[in-house]
Amino acid sequence: MIRKIFSLLVLLVSFCSCDTDDEKAISDFELAKAKWEKLQFNDYTIQENTSCFCGGLLEWTTKVINNEKDTVYFDDSKLYKGQTYQMVLDGAKTIEEAFDFIEQFDVTTVYSFDAVYDEQFGFPKSIFIDYVENMADDEIVYLYSNFTPTK
């Protein structure tokens, strides 16, 4: 009987002590996504910035209607080498698409991956990817700000 209780305690302690950063990140993701889904924002605008050592337009505002990209607003003078409005629209992410990107990203293929979520609404505020340790200029950051519900 004592042996069974001891085995049960060891098993319980091992489950309680295995809270890794990956599990915390999953938990943060799930909490944020649940918060976002509970609020049921279908119509909004959000600004997206991409920070990287890459070419192209790196900042725009996306208007979302019924959870679908409707329009992107940006400075036309910053289009890069043949970029078009359609290319920017295709590259812009709704908040649901940002969540999908985070959920589907294979974090085992990069050195570091981190997402930070808005405390009030749950949407991703930033997604940071560092592809190779100690390599300069391979990082990319997606920033989401100026969230405004439109209905």
Kindly summarize this structure in a few lines.
The protein is of the alpha+beta class. Helix content is 34%, strand content 30%.
Keywords, separated by commas or semicolons:
151 residues; alpha+beta; six-stranded antiparallel sheet; 4 helices; disordered N terminus; signal; DUF6174
Task: Write a structural description.
With 151 residues, the chain is an alpha+beta fold. It has one domain (41-149). The chain contains 4 helices and 6 strands, in the order H-H-E-E-E-H-H-E-E-E. It has a 6-stranded antiparallel beta sheet with strand order 3-2-1-6-5-4. Keywords: Signal. Residues 1-19 form the signal peptide. Pfam families: DUF6174.
Number of domains: 1
What sort of overall outline do the alpha carbons produce when their principal axes are compared? flat
Please tell me the overall pLDDT: 84
Helix content: 25-40%
Query: Structural class of the secondary structure composition?
Result: alpha+beta
- Total helices: the number is 4
How many strand units? 6
Percent in strands:
25-35%
Low-confidence stretches: 1-20
Q: Cα distance, first to last residue?
A: 62 Å
Radius of gyration: 20 Å
What spatial order of strands do you see in the largest sheet?
3-2-1-6-5-4
Strand count, sense and closure of the main sheet?
A: 6 strands, antiparallel
Order of helices and strands: HHEEEHHEEE
Keywords: Signal
Pfam family, one: DUF6174
Signal peptide: 1-19
InterPro entries: DUF6174
